[in-house]
Write a structure and sequence with these properties.
By secondary structure, this protein is mainly beta. The protein contains two helices and 24 strands.
Length: 281
């Protein structure tokens, strides 16, 4: 049985994206299925060579295998990995060292790691491991980041329906990385807008992975250049690739959470070009 699958997504020019219909937008930017039992599924994006993946080890452990686009014998030969668990407790073994990763906890896996094994502590409550990976030039320390280690910010307000709590998990304050950053933004009860006012950041790309969407509800993700915005309807545990030139914001029919992951030219979380709401078209 094949335990690892991947697909490739090529870069698009913003002028070209203006003319995409809904089907084309979804094909280019939406990752609809990340988790499949006993499999590792990856999407290799040509935006900053960023990899997005999901691993669901239910009945047996899953070993991290290299995929053809990275052209390396080991996945991490020239890459670093960040992962956040949104399921039951995971046991992750990196070069013989075991880490127990709980719900909404993160693990940073260093460039040069040779052997990585993913398994669920309880098959009845399998782990759901959301993966981001970016090219890396140096080996730092593989590190577990618990919720208590996160750098927490609160932004927005109930008045504007965007009250949210940001948990920065894999950032410079918690973990040394080459270029990868990851965290979770949780919309507070009654709030539906994330990242509003929106922004772009030409120094890095980003991926939003939407989770905690209640059954029967959905999120509308807004993307595109500020004066030519487009939208994608999202259901639970789906991800959207956001090029550096695109806004990335959303509104839901109920409160939800999303995991953000970034890679690019710098590690300054606040490096963004903020837009006024009335600039959007």
């Amino acid at each position: 049985m094949k335990h690892t699958e991947y697909e490739e997504r090529f870069s698009s020019h913003p002028e070209e994206v203006k003319h995409h219909d809904t089907l084309r937008l979804r094909k280019e930017f939406l990752i609809e299925t990340l988790f499949e039992e006993n499999k590792a599924k990856f999407t290799y994006s040509y935006y900053d060579r960023f990899i997005i993946g999901g691993i669901l080890p239910k009945d047996h452990p899953i070993e991290l295998a290299s995929i053809d686009p990275v052209k390396a014998s080991c996945f991490c030969d020239r890459r670093e990995i960040g992962l956040i668990n949104i399921g039951g407790d995971a046991i992750i073994t990196v070069d013989g060292k075991k880490f127990i990763v709980g719900f909404k906890e993160a693990l940073y896996i260093s460039q040069s790691a040779k052997s990585v094994l993913f398994e669920s502590d309880d098959k009845g409550k399998p782990a759901l491991l959301y993966i981001n990976s970016a090219p890396a030039h140096k080996a730092y320390i593989t590190r577990l980041i618990r919720q208590s280690d996160a750098v927490v910010m609160e932004l927005g307000s109930a008045e504007y329906a965007n009250h949210r709590k940001i948990r920065k998990l894999i950032v410079a304050a918690t973990c040394q990385t080459c270029q990868l950053q990851m965290g979770i933004t949780e919309l507070q009860p009654g709030s539906i807008w994330n990242t509003m006012p929106p922004h772009t950041h030409n120094r890095r790309m980003e991926v939003y992975f939407y989770t905690d969407i209640p059954k029967g509800q959905a999120v509308c993700h807004f993307m595109g250049i500020p004066d030519e915005t487009r939208h994608l309807w999202i259901t639970n545990n789906q991800a959207v690739i956001s090029p550096s030139w695109s806004i990335h914001s959303a509104a839901g029919t109920a409160s939800y959470s999303f995991i953000w992951g970034m890679a690019g030219e710098n590690l300054d979380f606040a490096d963004m070009d903020t837009l006024e709401i009335n600039e959007l078209k």
